[in-house]
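Notebook B, p. 112. Complex prediction, attempt 2.
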Amino acid sequence: MSEVARGEPAWIVDGRRWIEAALASVLPAASERPSRLHEAMRYALLGGGKRLRPALVRLLCTELGGSEAAALQPALAIELVHTYSLVHDDLPAMDDDTLRRGRPTVHVAFDEATAILVGDALLTLAFECLAGESGERAGALAGVLARAAGSQGMVGGQVLDLALEAGGAADDLDALEDMHRRKTAALFEAAAEMGAIAAGRDAATRASAAAFGRALGLLFQAVDDLLDVLSDAATLGKTPGKDAVLERATLVRALGLDGARERAAELAERTRSRARELGFGPGAPAFELAEHVLRRSS
Amino acid sequence: MSEVARGEPAWIVDGRRWIEAALASVLPAASERPSRLHEAMRYALLGGGKRLRPALVRLLCTELGGSEAAALQPALAIELVHTYSLVHDDLPAMDDDTLRRGRPTVHVAFDEATAILVGDALLTLAFECLAGESGERAGALAGVLARAAGSQGMVGGQVLDLALEAGGAADDLDALEDMHRRKTAALFEAAAEMGAIAAGRDAATRASAAAFGRALGLLFQAVDDLLDVLSDAATLGKTPGKDAVLERATLVRALGLDGARERAAELAERTRSRARELGFGPGAPAFELAEHVLRRSS
């Protein structure tokens, strides 16, 4: 898979190892009743993935002066929310995808009812993770995550995505970027802001972290649109070329391949600029991340 | 509808009025983008309902010395979670219901993708409501709600319900009551415990409140099973007799009609006993509630 390519920054590899171990233990054992549900939750959550969002929580928290331990519950929560959204997005009534991270999607490997309930349970567990945080922190983290994931964030973005496909306005750039802001960037924004909260930083730093995460999320989505055109299934771990077949709204469709590449380069520049505002210059992991994400598409 | 029958206790009527006003304002306006999603969320949440769970949060909070205002966010959260669970349970892949509270279900009135996303957004909003509570309270409330709603609570109960139907063990009383404990009673338990938390009470009172809620929830489900056999659609507001047609696991199926009535009477007695342990004797609303719920079935 592209995300384990050579040249991946050490903090992403370390962040992935760190969160993988924690993800396995945050879920009830498959032997716990109802075992089929818990088995399916483990299948959905432990089947690989870049784990970029939890790594981002950890990076921002530690680079802003917090401990790795302080980042753990928010990192778990954000990966649980991300995974639930994939499970639901893949459903027949939504994107109807059969392949995810190189394996059958949850509703294919199990069944549709189980996939709906797996998503519901993962989303709920995310907030259970945050509930145990001490003092004011539990509420602050839950508020950021809920606003990012809800009807005006990620869920709203999925609705706009489905509407763009159905409505044929798939080349409207403003509508497309509004959708990307909600569907993808909102969760990156939350990951970065949760890192700043976990580090105990003030509202100004939280806002700067959020702006950095938002730019990074838009970049990530732009690269994702490019990868769908440029990759094969083995590299991508999911069905490639599907955006075009389904007439999905993508940057490539709205701007053409070269236009989408230019837009990705602009977003990389914006991401670096936001990293600088947060105090991270060239050489700092948060600054170099833009280049790493951009390189995935070339 | 049965729940507005004469003889309904004043605190249930008052609690319903109180929460209805708050529910309308907790949701984004239907004009807010994505407007179709917000319209569907309003359709799902504002279409009537007994509002017994939020009324219970309010009752426990105020009877245990807290203010009505302190009960508001937990009451909103529990009704949002209850409503999301109805929207998802009604989906074609689950119970495939077309009628709810006397109106077409969300996936019928809108579409399946929208219904899935409405449920996701309502669940997320529930935790956003709790996130704004002050100090340690946000985390305590979110923890109780998440555990009640998650894979070992309500979502797990729905899985067990679907498995009981599919597996033909629908007359196994132990499996049935385990399912009822999770699917229905867990949320009543959470409602009562959240009331105690909102009132600022200690762990012992919280535990007693939870035990009262659990008994009440089992009683409520037993009566629900009886109502499906005894009511007509106009009274029930949803398709009656469906349990039998679908060979659903119900108390009536496991015990027969008389046996199920006896069991409901036992559960009413247990509920009164738990109310007494919590300090509420005859004449107190929490004590008299058992009789009110039981009366629905006769």
